[in-house]
Design goal:
Number of strands: 2
CATH class: Mainly Alpha
Strand content: under 5%
Number of domains: 1
Number of helices: 11
Structural class: mainly alpha
Strand order of the largest sheet: 1-2
Helix content: 55-70%
Radius of gyration: 19 Å
CATH architecture: Orthogonal Bundle
Amino acid sequence: MHIPDGFLSTRVWGTMDVVAAPAVALLAKRAQREFDHHKVPLMGVMGAFIFAAQMINFPVGNGTSGHLVGAALLAYTLGPAAASIVMTAILATQALIFQDGGLLALGTNIFNMAIAGVWLGYLPFAMLRGGKAGVFLGGMLSLLVSASLALTELLASGVPIPPAILALSGALFVVSAVIEGAITLAVVQALERMQPGVLRQPKGLNSRTGLVLGATSAALAAAGIFVASTRPDGIESLAQRTGIWSRVTTVFRAPMADYQTTLAITPWLGRSLAGLAGLALVYVVCLVISRMLVASRPPLSAAATPREGV
């Protein structure tokens, strides 16, 4: 789902960068008004969990894999504005530290997943008042929207995608979307069993839920390599089928590119250490952001007025 540098035309990635930057700034302002201090730990733990979950690819058919994006899940647990900020932090960390997604294409990936994916994924959840159908459909829609935007941006950049390959990619993205919806529903139900009402403000995490999420995230980051599919994901598979994979460019060499570190003596250990390092980094970044949102929040009397009618 992460578009690397080299696939998009300058006009497309430049436009998306210009759109994404002020959009994230506006969403940060909204998150600042709405974010509750009880959810400070939840923001860090959920950011780390989504980062770790995105490292686990699963087969979706025809030699292609997918992975959880988690945009809808973040929106359900944090609210859509805060979710957009957390997903932006995850995508920026992946691009800058792990070279997962392009640096020039970062605005595009942020718009696709952290903005459109989050907000449109939240829509069914809000309309259906958080029922199982709303959770599942929101997860599906978040991925379908992000994937459709990615395909549109590739086409707008002049990438030649034959109709048969475009149809195949669309079908594979639908399969990924169904799995996204199912995983999202399963995680939400697990959270509700551990801590009833966790999705409703102003409750945050109790210690048991936080420990379970933290331990699960660490296990996914450290040991996920042993169960993750090695098949290319949807965008990589599309690039290989259309012959544009050779266009990938590297703006700079990230310190742990491809989720590897030179500190390890074996590739699997290198990936595990890199995953754990990324997990810790995302957790700290999201925790710092959440504390900044709370610290800069206007007094309750001043904050109540803007929320009315939003």
